[in-house]
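Dear colleagues,

For the upcoming journal club I promised to circulate an example of a predicted protein-ligand complex. I picked one with beta-D-glucopyranose because it came up in last month's discussion. The inputs are reproduced below in full, followed by the predicted structure.
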Amino acid sequence: MKKSVIAIAATSVLAVCVTGCMCCKKGEGMNGKEASVVVKPFGKTKDGQLVHQYTLTGAGGVVMDVIDYGGKIVRLYTPDRTGKAIDITAGFNDMAGYETFDPYFGSLIGRYGNRIANGKFTLDSKTYTLPTNNEPGGIPCSLHGGKKGFDAVVWHVEPLAEGETVGLKLSMTSPDGDQGYPGTLKVDVTYWLTPGNVWRIEYQATTDKATPINLTQHVYFNFKGEASGDILDHELTLFADKMTPVDKGLIPTGKLASVKGTPFDFTTPHVIGERINTKNEQLEFGGGYDHNWVLDNPNGKLAKAAALFEKTTGRTMEVWTTEPAIQFYCGNFMTDKVPSKTKGKNLCYRGGLALETQHSPDSPNQPNFPSTILRPGAVYKTTTEYRFGVKE
Ligand code: BGC
């Protein structure tokens, strides 16, 4: 694909129209929006690094504010059924919010999405120890790449455009031994925003030593708007008839369980709150839904993994992925002690939900799960799409 790169002045505000289509006047997209990428300063990390915000405006009405710190989606505006766009994701207005609370809001996650038991794995007869940073049920593990994962580094960002589709290429190199993982890992993640309101994420990585890798995005959705109560009324479909049960440390037992006849059966649409308080050991361990579903997608082709709908606004979203699994987390660890982006309002328990496409948690210790090991010479490549829409 031919990609044109937009030159951006690093610290100044600059609007760049990138549409060149014959059907639109003055660069306007199909919905009268002008596709653009705009950059401005966002703040500084505690250790003094400059952080920039890139606003991607899609020709179809979706707008995303992305920062180079962790590739985080700070704001995500999507239209409701009347055409009114509001921000539907959890995030913070400043770096202090991200560095104080660190709930992975909107973040790129790496090297390993979700948990690795006891922060240990053995690869090619060598045991590696990762610093642990999480302990559900009092049992320590490594979560989302460790103490300083890919969510907490400043990525190099290159704005992109291709016709009416705008994008950002985010790149970083994780050095050999980073957070205990072997190999120098070179990572590129590209966000595309299409005129059809699809946010497409392309992940790519190479390594010089064998290493586990499981990249994902931890964006939280609340289709009624950020800081607009909980998400228990959202209707979810998961195209998966199996899930990976966990122990009380939220580590998979290694078994695959059928969802049939359980509160984990989302093969047909269900409102999230409908069965969340059912007496069920898995729901107790997760404090609600915080589990990994194995997708009916064995061949690695882009396939539908999930669908989400909120009836008062009409917002819909489909999640498509090449990945074999999806973590559905309904914000069980969210609290009302955390500020929102709306002045004077805090977030709340289950105020957002994440649908994280990935391989299953703890795969490096689970011989029965698809492998997450990347070897030198191979290229890690996965794609996920969040397709936004509305219905009556
Ligand atoms: C995990 C949760 C965790 C959350 C942190 C999710 O991916 O499944 O257990 O608390 O990330 O934000």
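Two points we might discuss: Confidence is low (pLDDT under 50) at residues 1-30. The first helix runs from residue 95 to 101.

See you all on Thursday,
B. R.
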